Amino acid sequence: NAGVMQNPRHLVRRRGQEARLRCSPMKGHSHVYWYRQLPEEGLKFMVYLQKENIIDESGMPKERFSAEFPKEGPSILRIQQVVRGDSAAYFCASSQGTGATYEQYFGPGTRLTVT
Amino acid sequence: DAKTTQPNSMESNEEEPVHLPCNHSTISGTDYIHWYRQLPSQGPEYVIHGLTSNVNNRMASLAIAEDRKSSTLILHRATLRDAAVYYCILRDGVRTTDSWGKLQFGAGTQVVVTP
Description:
The complex is a heterodimer of chains A (115) and B (115).
Chain A: E1 5-7, E2 10-13, E3 19-24, E4 31-37, E5 43-50, E6 53-56, E7 65-68, E8 75-79, E9 88-95, E10 105-106, E11 110-114
Parallel strand pairs in A: 2-11
Antiparallel strand pairs in A: 1-3, 3-8, 4-5, 4-9, 5-6, 7-8, 9-10, 9-11
Chain B: E1 9-13, E2 18-23, E3 31-38, E4 45-50, E5 55-56, E6 61-64, E7 70-75, E8 84-92, E9 109-114
Parallel strand pairs in B: 1-9
Antiparallel strand pairs in B: 2-7, 3-4, 3-8, 5-6, 6-7, 8-9
């Protein structure tokens, strides 16, 4: 059973460009979470999605960031008009169910560098 | 949200046990205690979780104090591969609270394993 897959693993964008990060959850998992880890900082929750629905986006910046998890295909985290402060590692996790008794399985992350 | 307190770092010799403490004095009756770890340049990895009773799995043991205000993660024989940041996280079992779906990471404990 393949784990959580993220691509690309490394992404370089110039300021003002768009970044698209993809996450394929583990087979059978319908819950996806995105986290961001800024350099030398801790992991911060961004958004929680189920198929076609955003459940909790309390950690998403108000502008330029969006996320989706369509019925078919991977979850996408989209960052428009990137700025240097967006440079970070972005991790996706998935779980079989939601709530405190379900563990989350993390992908290897996408390292975004904005030049 | 209930908070956790962990030491910044701990050092251990290879093949010796490691006891990682976590204080959560404001824990509520429905909070589960979760542990995750993050190896260098990797995504976080689930370690173990419990509610009231001590728990064991192939990776570690979790000892929970009787009043649940603290817990200890025990790595029975540390290896070099166990060098990581270990996070103690509370997750509420009640759906209507903030910590229902997302993981709220603190600074964690950096474990250093010496050969």
